[in-house]
Amino acid sequence: xxxxxxxxxxxxHLGSRYITNGKDIEIKLxxxxxxxxxxxxxxxxxxxxLDYWYEYKHVVPKGFIxxxxxxxxxxxxxxxxYWFIGNHDIWLNDYFRKEIGIEIIDGEKIxxxxxxxxxxxxxxxxxxxxxxxxxxxSIFRNRICQCLYxxxxxxWTIPFAYSWxxxxxKTGTKSDEYDTTTKNALLSYRRFANEYNDxxxxxxxxxxxxxxxHTLLDEELKNGARLIVLGDWIKLFSFAKYSYGNFTIDxxx
Length: 253
Known about the structure:
Number of strands: 11
Oligomer: single chain
Order of helices and strands: EHEHEHEEEHHHHEEEEE
Distance between the termini: 26 Å
Structural class: alpha/beta
Strand order of the largest sheet: 4-3-2-1-10-11
């Protein structure tokens, strides 16, 4: 079978402490990866794939063997895999590139797929961000802070990181309804997309695809562009597919 499909997925948060059935979700995700291997030519994972990840020089966190194995299987069968750094899996270095061949991307990336232009990003660095989030993001991405963090033994840093993530999720207001933060972020995404195409009339983007917000959105913007937000694998179990000029969003039951 000819491989013609490109897939997009984000916000799986594997390993998170606030998900009680984490292993079931990992198995569900692996089954989905199995289901796309016959027609997938590329897989874009747009951030927060893992709820926490830190690569020491000679140590990586344990777990996720099923998932990593499936990614390796896809890569070995010719599927191009791209992993965008999110705000939870910030500290990706070269482990997955060396072991599996995954391309790690920090920030935005513009790609052309079957004649259409896509701007892809996790989305945490685009548009509206609360003051507290900007401070935390700048600390986590600071090289000096990362070096200091790496000097602490993993027996302390890993429990701390998962506890921080669990607290952050519990104090958030994510729900089936858009909260104020999500509404503001969506407004910022729309503004960013429209302004980008206004500033680049000869290189317009057809699809702006983001994660981060844990909600699903497929919205037509001016000039025919589309704004896509990919949902998550905590409640929605959603993904997107582009094939033969058709972009669709679906969920796993």
